[in-house]
Amino acid sequence: MGQFKTDLIIFIALLILTLIVLLLTVGQNGIDIQFHDTYFVVDKIALVALIVGPLSFLIFLARGLTKKFRTRGPNIGLIIGLLLVALITYCIIEFQQHYLDEIRRLDDEGLPDRGQFVAAVKNKINWSWRILGLWIIGLLLLTFRTVAIWKPCTTASDENQ
Q1: pTM of structure
Q2: What is the mean pLDDT of residues 54-79?
Q3: Beta strands in the chain (DSSP E)
């Protein structure tokens, strides 16, 4: 039972981190992130997913590896982390696809041909889809493993019968 308490404490700490991020951004519709000459506007929920998703994935992956994925707590935490990381990966794919569509639109308007650049973006999108597939396969395998090790709680009255 002590392992489950540790996992619960870690999960509560991640929820507190989420609450802190949300409280720090009260009154803001989004957060502006400057990357070179481009501004990205990230809403609060996406910011929380970008912080908590990879953190929960890494923390519970380490705990799951040490427990050989035989306990429910790390597995459930890792499932939540994998869901968030898969969601982040899908959003990145959508962003890349939108970027590619914008490049194609500019090419249709008669601006210089960007054939190699378009090919490179397509290659990145294909790799992103492969990574998303990897997350989904890992999520399914971990879910099946967690269901397989799930033991219903028995009470003293059940044991006496």
Answers
A1: 0.77
A2: 89
A3: 30-35, 38-43
